[in-house]
Amino acid sequence: MRKVASAVLLVLIVLTAGCIGSNGGTASTSPTSTGITSATSPTASPTESGGIDFAAYGKGQVLSNWYKIGNTSKVYVSKGYEDLAKHYFPNAQILPASQYEGGIAILSPEDARPVLRGKPILITVNDYFGYIVYKLGLKFVGKDKGIFAAFNKDGREYIVFTGTSKAGAGAALEYAMGIKNGGQVYPNDVVRSGEFEGILLKVIGDNNWNGIPDEGEHWYLSSFKTMEPFIYYWRIVDGENVTVKGGFIKFVNGSTVYIYALGFNVSVEVKNSNGAELTYVIENTNPSVLNLPEGVETGDTWVRFTTSKPSFSVVPKDVENYTIFAFGDHRPDGGKELPQVFLKIRDAINADSGVFIIDGGDLVYSGKVDEWGELMKEWKWNKPVFIAVGNHEYRGEGINVYHMLFGPTDYSFVLGDYYYIFMNNIDHDYGLSDEQWAWLQNELEKAKSLGKKPVIVMHAPPVDPRPNGNHGMNYMDGKKLLQLMKAYNAFGVFSHIHMFWDGEIDGVRYIVTGGGGAPLYAKPDEGGFYHYARLGMLSNATITAEPVKVNP
After folding, report:
1. Are strands 491-494 and 508-513 parallel, antiparallel or unpaired?
2. Residues in the chain with pLDDT < 70?
3. Is the C-alpha dihedral spanning 481, 487, 492, 497 positive or negative?
4. What pLDDT does residue 50 have?
5. How far, in Å, are 235, 243, 273, 549 from residue 268 at the CA level?
6. DSSP letters along 3-66, please?
7. Of the candidates 275, 290, 289, 299, which has an alpha carbon nearest to the alpha carbon of residue 324?
8. Quick check: 69 and 62 in contact, CB under 8 A?
9. For residues 95 and 77, is the Cβ–Cβ distance under 8 A?
10. Would the pTM of this model clear 0.90, i.e. be above it?
11. Taken in order 90, 96, 100, 106, is the CA torsion positive or negative?
């Protein structure tokens, strides 16, 4: 498998956990973990009653010594996973998973569910996301998750390699083989409870989803505790070194790269191309405002084409006097059942004529996977949607789900005479970090140099416009944002407060459009009504804002 310089890879990785696994081979971990468990821990020995003597091992040492504890000459395997057994245990006797009553097993998620039932790490099912991992009260979604676990049951040792898919099981196996070859387990990522030890893994780069590192792939394999690692902008696909700007790589399937657009200018660069023909699907876009070559397949919100070009860009047409929509706060008032008025607003926006949609956040109630599943069943739009993340979804297990579905939270794009800047202002006590302030300043300078009017989109407004209101950014950061917006003549789109408001504070005009379905925060005559906003983005840098009421 093609190797890539680790220095380049490290620049491109969004590190919330993990390290590089060169050729998919080395065990990897959270960089914040302390303490390393090597595979040269105590000599493996069973208890008098059989099974693993957990008392003889420190945290992580059971996994580190798995190949000494288990009988590697015999492996129980789920149907359809036999090729994994042959690849990772080429000399082992392969037996069907239906006979598994201890020892080493490579299991499909279906077969693993009863085996792991009641364990601190297990597999369950969501009717939207499919198989998911449940670990100590948190759920993790995606077919890229692996589980490597060892435990005792009925006086026998069980060593299980599984995951949410075949790719996940392969990730667990690749990780374990890396340990056998001198890799390390980081205890902070390990769950140890009684006679159980397990670790959760994520693989990025298994483009064929077959659990085996193939020629032309480069795996990034990581264990993690709660926060998943994400690589937004880079992959190796059929040996091609693909870098994306203006969107993020949502996933790769074989030779097809799925890019989720974060604007209307998406570019791809293939470094040192070998001429491989790849297919690109750009999602969350509007083909009607794009300059597209002939032969491109299009839908309402996507384009698809195949090329061997080493670089290309999909750029917008010169557009002016266009309409966009904005709304936010369509979460329920608890639970996962969607507000019916949100569905009415969605249908009304889909029936209206405009270029794209701004969603001001608070998509679900508390970020739980089951809430996300219900939302995504109804996430049916005929226009691209760009989101400013809200405080209700960006918590707990919802943070990982948000990044998987919608990518990074801070991004920008240009369309016509306007420069749109989306930012996460719910962290840092409803404010921005020093790094975010520097990035925002730089983006505003870019807008100025291009002669574009900035449009700043965040969840919480700089100041709550209601008399005695206190539901905006923290005082100092809100004041600083208003000063920047005034200096650069920026317009603002916010939500967080469940009402509609359009006005000026300290010489800065912005709107609050938070009537997407959550309980209202004002009287009807004071903006407390369900709605979306229709914004006219005129060529003279003038913006009109019209609330469109929707009856619940």
Report:
1. parallel
2. 1-49
3. positive
4. 78
5. 11, 6, 12, 41
6. ---HHHHHHH-B-SS----GGG-S----TT----B-TT-SPP-B-TTSSB-GGGS-TTHHHHTH
7. 289
8. yes
9. yes
10. yes
11. positive
